[in-house]
Amino acid sequence: MNAAFPLTVNGVDHDVTARPGATLMDVLRTLGYVSVKNGCDHGDCGTCAVLMDGNAVNACLVFAIKAAGSAITTLEGLAGSGDLHPLQTTALESGGVQCGFCTPGMLMTALDLLGSKPDPTEDEVKTALAGNLCRCTGYAKIVDGIMAAARAMQGRSEAGDD
Amino acid sequence: MAVTSITRYLTPSTIDEAVALKRDFGSSAHFVAGGTDVVLHSGGAGTLIDLQKLGLSDIRADGGFVKVGAMTTLTAVLESPLVAPILHGVIPDMLVHVGSPLLRNVATLGGHLARGKLSDIVPVLIAADTRVAWLAEGEHTATLAEYYRTGSYLTDHVLHTIDIPVWNATTSAGFTRFARAAFDLAIVNVAARVSLNEAVEATSASVVIGNAPGPFVVAAAAADSLVGRPLTAGTVEEASRLASAESGIGGDGRAAEDYRRHLAGVLTRRSLSKAAQQLGVRL
Asked: Between chains, do B101 and A26 touch, taking CB under 8 Å as contact?
């Protein structure tokens, strides 16, 4: 017995037909937004992090039907026509991407953080990433990348350049 | 992973409608707040009744209480300027370590309390003398401790308001948790509240041990031992000893009883010390 409901993802409206108990992660991946990763299906790893009305959430813990009427943002929606978002550029340049599996979730959580704190401290970045696990990098370069993106988004190129 | 047992997802617009739907669909219908726990532990529910349209997500000050709507997310509670000053910030101090920012953006205070599971939030709110209000064949209100003790949290009801007292500056509270990894549920935690008069004597106190392994144990003997006496390192030590001797503390797969008792004593001392420090008392 399927449910029908609308879902708006990266500004695109979708008419979804899915089980009523489907999670937002299941539906997004079925719609082709495969940057949303299933790392644990339990809300522990953060690889499924997406924005729901600007707030980072574990898509695996949200019933998809609950997201009807909200604006969902995934990594696919980050790059403007061809240009990478600063968070994507600095993630690559900082060495904060190894296998890349945690990266979409990390960047969506970072996008939420920078939306409310455009100039975060390193501690604020680490606290914001508390729900995003990485098995490859040891986190330091992920944090560096996010700090660099924050500076770039404020028009500053170097740390300490005010 | 889809919860395959669910065949119907309903979103009523009023609290009376929600209660009526629950009555109509019976035991196979479950209420959903944030839904983060229901996704993982649906209990075979066939019908979900989502409470998100009931307008229960505000926080306001009213008559000596901060009234928190049950559908308020944990993030909103954590960031609330009304909640922050209560008992020198014990609630945001505790909440910042509950789950993750991602989880807190969806999980709600009411949904968390109504589940009645292992928690850092429950002991802190009980120590703060929090009251809750719910609708179930009429309006009900009780302290959070009574809500659990009487089994009200297990009945068909919609919890709608959490009332946290705004304590004055002569009362403070501390919370300490012990877990193996930061993201784990605590093996045990302790919330302690104490009020002092000008002679630095405790006029009232509360010590609540959580995850003991049951959701909470009110360490009444520990709290009573403080009242009417100066708050000193000695009285704190005695309260800690009494807390660790509480009959409700036990062992489970995560900790043996004697280890948990030892931890309960240590965390009681630390939580009381935090409260004392916040009141400007050097133990």
From this structure: no
**Is the Cβ of A132 closer than 8 Å to some Cβ of chain B?**
yes
Q: Does B184 touch chain A (CB under 8 A)?
A: no
Distance CA A154, CA A151 (A): 5
Burial B32-43 (b: 16+ CB within 10 A, else e): bbbbbbbbeebe
- Complex prediction ipTM: 0.95
- pTM attached to this predicted model: 0.96
Is B183 in CB contact (< 8 Å) with chain A?
A: yes
Q: What is the least distance, in Å, from the CA of B220 to any CA of chain A?
A: 35
Kindly determine whether residue B8 and residue A20, on different chains, have CB atoms separated by under 8 Å.
yes
Instruction: Nearest chain B residue to A40 by CA: give it.
Output: B1
Q: Do B39 and A128 touch (CB under 8 A)?
A: no
Between CA B209 and CA B215 the distance in angstroms is 8
Q: How far is CA B231 from CA B39, B202, B203, B272, in A?
A: 46, 6, 10, 9
Q: What is chain B's pLDDT, residue by residue, as a tens digit (283 residues)?
A: 889 999 999 999 999 999 999 999 999 999 999 999 999 999 899 999 999 999 999 999 999 999 999 999 999 999 999 999 999 999 999 999 999 999 999 999 999 999 999 999 999 999 999 999 999 889 999 999 999 999 999 999 999 999 999 999 999 999 999 999 888 999 999 999 999 999 999 999 999 999 999 989 999 999 999 999 999 999 999 999 999 999 999 999 999 999 999 999 999 999 999 999 999 999 9
